[in-house]
Design a protein that fits this description.
By secondary structure, the protein is an alpha/beta fold. It is built from eleven helices and eleven strands. The chain binds 6-O-phosphono-beta-D-fructofuranose.
């Protein structure tokens, strides 16, 4: 069946650049003769039928805005067969033939199931600060979050060095250490503690035993939020008990990492991916995510993007150590 009307939604945690992606999908679709509908609050808008007509001006002046004009939600109903059936009925009633879903792991899991159950053409865009989707070197929002963390750490370093303290800075990432590791490199931190190597070494003991104080009087350690790392609080507690000679402090950056105007890198990525999503539908692609590999856009089966096969480059951890001697 020929596609006439495309629906767009953003789901899960918001990420800077989602608006740039919404704009690119909308305008590329209109340029190619499709009609567009904006679905509000992620899958919830499909379940409740909160669907709006989108014109070119619906997406004016948003490329620079963080967050998502479509709003977002984590929708429980959509995880049930009844909820998805309701969503399909509303989608059909609104005349929507295909969907572009912008979101992370949970959102694309929902897309994959929905596409299979109801034979709906769906293209996913990786929208998450966590960068934890397979088949793509980067996700929309990741670069902006890295920059936000880097700027915060630059500020923390002033006080850390003045007081000669050890700072544990906890960053987001769900179960992945991409944000922690790469913000550690970018901010010249003394260490990154990430979930990916939790079972292999006691990262805190190693950090202390290699004597970060030998040449420095203060240190910044980026900690990924996963329970596997113990989190910044857990690590500071351990320092208090096991290494009381250190004066440790904790900063949890929290949701500040999800906000802000997207960087040029994220705006360009979102614009390219958004346009590619429409082109993918025109080519008859379904149940794929748009990824970027070595600078080129690629189609990744959503199932593969969700396979958690993306590994962290461990050389990065060595680099943090080498560059902080
Ligand atoms: O997936 C994005 C993310 O920001 C994760 O890094 C974090 O663990 C989670 O969402 C927080 O979710 P919420 O905003 O629902 O607390």
């Amino acid at each position: 069946m020929a596609i006439k009307r495309i629906g767009i939604l953003t789901s899960g945690g918001d990420a800077p650049g989602m608006n740039a992606a919404i704009r690119a999908v909308t305008r590329t679709a209109i340029y190619n003769g499709f009609e567009v509908r904006g679905i509000m609050r992620g899958y919830r808008g499909l379940v409740t039928g909160e669907i709006k007509e989108f014109t070119s001006s619906s997406v004016s002046n948003i490329i620079q805005q963080g967050g998502t004009i479509l709003k977002t939600a984590r929708c429980q109903e959509f995880t049930t067969p009844e909820g998805r059936k309701q969503a399909y009925e509303n989608m059909k009633a609104a005349g929507i033939d295909a969907l572009v879903v912008i979101g992370g792991d949970g959102s694309l899991t929902g897309a994959e199931t929905f596409a299979r159950e109801f034979d709906v053409p769906i293209v996913g865009l990786p929208g998450t600060i966590d960068n934890d989707l397979g088949g793509t070197d980067s996700t929309i929002g990741y670069d902006t979050a890295l920059n936000t963390i880097m700027e915060a750490v630059d500020k923390l370093r002033d006080t850390a060095s003045s007081h000669e303290r050890l700072f544990f800075v906890e960053v987001m990432g769900r179960n992945a250490g991409f944000l922690a590791l790469n913000s550690a490199i970018a901010s010249g931190a003394e260490a990154a503690i990430i979930p990916e190597i939790e079972t292999e070494v006691d990262q805190l003991a190693e950090l202390i035993s290699t004597g970060f104080r030998k040449s420095k009087n203060s240190a910044i350690v980026l900690v990924a939020e996963s329970p596997k790392t113990g989190g910044a609080m857990g690590l500071a507690e351990r320092v208090k008990k096991e290494f009381p000679e250190y004066d440790a402090r904790v900063t949890i950056l929290g949701h500040i990492q999800r906000g802000g105007s997207p960087t040029a890198v994220d705006r360009n990525l979102a614009s390219r991916m958004g346009a590619a999503a429409v082109e993918a539908l025109m080519e008859g692609q379904r149940n794929v995510m748009i990824g970027i590999k070595n600078g080129e856009l690629v189609y990744v089966p959503i199932r593969k993007a969700l396979s958690h096969e993306k590994t962290i480059n461990r050389k990065g951890l060595d680099l943090v150590k080498i560059l902080s001697i």
